[in-house]
Amino acid sequence: MSQFDNVSVTTNANVYFDGKVTSRTVTFADGTHKTLGIMMPGDYEFAASDQELMEISSGELDVLLPNADWVSIKGGESFEVPANSSFKVKASTVIDYCCSYFK
User: Fold this and answer.
1) Out of 32, 33, 68, 91, which residue is the most buried by the measure of CB atoms under 10 Å away?
2) Is the pTM of this model over 0.85?
3) Is the sign of the CA dihedral 47, 35, 2, 39 positive or negative?
4) What does the pLDDT look like over 17-72, one tens digit per residue?
5) In terms of residue numbers, what domain contains 70?
6) What is d(CA 72, CA 65) in angstroms, rounded to the nearest whole number?
7) Alpha-carbon distances of 1 from 29, 88, 100, rounded to whole Å
8) Dihedral of alpha carbons 24, 43, 89, 95, sign
9) Where does the secretion signal sit in this chain (predicted)?
């Protein structure tokens, strides 16, 4: 996940929570996309319409997924989010992440 080749990047940022979470959309030749982002320390709740894979490049957070308990995640680890759900995050450090979407 350190580099993506032959992609398009949307220059306008996706900005959430008063700028505490930002990302850029990366689109691949086959039309699939990912977002690359930064999350500042804080508590957040996100809604997911598609299934998501959140890969954490660096930082530490706790995540609460539907029908689960809080789990600690650190750089080099990932978690999956079911489609049509919401999840909570408690970021204790700056988080560098990549989110993949599946229909």
Assistant:
1) 91
2) yes
3) negative
4) 999 999 999 999 999 999 999 999 999 999 999 999 999 999 999 999 999 999 99
5) 7-102
6) 11
7) 17, 24, 11
8) positive
9) none
Side chain identity at residue 11, one-letter code: T
What's the number of domains the chain is made of? 1
Structure tokens at 60: 């530490």
Cα separation, 89 vs 73, whole angstroms? 10
Q: What distance separates the 2 farthest-apart alpha carbons in the chain?
A: 39
- E strands in the chain: 7-9, 14-16, 21-28, 33-39, 42-48, 51-58, 60-64, 71-74, 78-81, 85-91, 95-102
In a domain, 2, yes or no: no
